[in-house]
From TrEMBL, chains A, B:
Residues 7-100, 143-245 form the Pseudouridine synthase I TruA alpha/beta domain. Keywords: Isomerase, tRNA processing. NCBIfam families: hisT_truA. Coiled coil: none annotated. Belongs to the tRNA pseudouridine synthase TruA family. The lineage of its organism: Bacteria, Bacillati, Bacillota, Clostridia, Lachnospirales. It comes from Variimorphobacter saccharofermentans. This is tRNA pseudouridine synthase A. It is an enzyme of class 5 (isomerase).
Length: 250, 250
């Protein structure tokens, strides 16, 4: 028996998120089906990040155990031939059998994209949140800086969360504009349910002038979801990468 | 009666191209329906470029005549509310009544995108042609330079064309790579049926080493579609802009 780690990219548009849900198309279901068919075993992947419906990924991580004799590095090419075109495994490597993608410390990086111009361009619509009003990205960066560090992010977490501990560390948030696209890149040791989308929604409120940047201090202190801005649209969010302290490869 | 010029952007993924075809979803049909509903007249647009099924646009051009009192500049915002989200009119201006988008001289710019890496990234798949083998872009540029100028492009035109005159002028072709994406940008005074896709398909053959760059001279001379490379996938192609010598605005 060996444990295989996959790096998985997907277009979340047509899926009800990562996690298995009875009768619904999810990324986890597609991976389980394609791997089970390929390896002729009953495969159940364990995912690192259970992304929401409509959220995309360049580098989500999953592991599974197998008795197959197929070399670990070849699995990604073979499984891609059995996956729909909106899911592609980027790599497959053997890892230590104790490696669990959610229990081992990691640094996750997400990108939230805002397409900011007067009229939408349809070819950008699936991978960004279109906003026609002006956004002040200097103010958004100023607000974002208050979020960096270790904080209780209860105000930036869906009330539907099951997390008891809402303290997380954000290492950095960088906001850049290239032509009409605004990129919010955020790296942390973990994110609560809807946390990146609520941060994006709150920074948009700051960008349009509805909140002053310092309001972030108040929102953090209040520990109340109602104080933060709305949850920004899922289609603007992409999980870029998950880095582990050690690569645990075998 | 006034003539209105529209600049139209669309995601061609879900359409059978620009041109009306009985019972099929096309960009022209969607524009006619939305404009007729908005202006309460029977509107029939005339398009500048009848893009193929699956081809995208940032700036196709269309005109139509109307008796409506709605100010020309407001039409784009009003019609966008009646269009599906994969079509967006970027601007609407009144033009001289004799302005015809296919009969007036213009410079058209297309971009063909090739996503060139070992494994596909799903969020790029709808707007680029994925190629996993190595491409030598210096050789592709060398080949492209033979196409610049006035030539008979019969070899680079679908045999299904109705064009009698196959002479066209290409002003420039620029090939650039930014990370894993290769951009072929091509500007000319007009393009034959499938011409940009056949040029892209032929440059890909050069890039992978199947043809030497000089083979372009032979292909042009031969005036035979069978000499050129295959027609590259539609999804990689975007009509970027159409510039007219004069803006003909009223």
């Amino acid at each position: 028996m060996k444990r295989i780690k996959l790096v998985v990219a997907y277009d979340g548009t047509n899926y009800c998120g990562w996690q298995l849900q009875p009768g619904m198309p999810t990324i986890e279901l597609m991976l389980n089906n394609a791997l089970s068919e390929l390896l002729k075993e009953d495969i159940n992947v364990i995912g690192a990040s259970r992304t929401d419906s409509g959220v995309h990924a360049l580098g989500n991580v999953a592991v599974f155990d197998t008795n197959s004799a197929i070399p670990a590095e070849k699995i990604c090419f073979a499984v891609n031939q059995r996956l729909p075109e909106d899911i592609r495994v980027q790599s497959s490597v053997e890892v230590e059998p104790f490696f669990h993608p959610r229990r081992v410390k990691s640094k996750k990086t997400y990108e939230y994209r805002i397409y900011n111009r007067k009229i939408e361009i349809p070819t950008q619509r699936l991978y960004s949140n279109f906003i026609y009003y002006d956004l002040d990205i200097a103010k958004m960066q100023e607000a974002a800086n208050y979020l960096v560090g270790e904080h209780d992010f209860k105000s930036f977490c869906s009330v539907k969360t099951q997390a008891l501990d809402t303290v997380r560390t954000i290492y950095r948030i960088d906001i850049n504009r290239i032509e009409d696209m605004i990129y919010i890149k955020i790296t942390g040791n973990g994110f609560l349910y809807n946390m990146v989308r609520i941060i994006a929604g709150t920074l948009i409120e700051v960008g349009r002038g509805a909140y002053p940047p310092e309001k972030i201090i108040e929102i953090l202190k209040g520990s109340d979801r109602n104080l933060a801005g709305p949850t920004a649209l899922a289609r603007g969010l992409t999980l870029i990468s998950i880095e582990y302290e050690n690569d645990y490869s075998f």
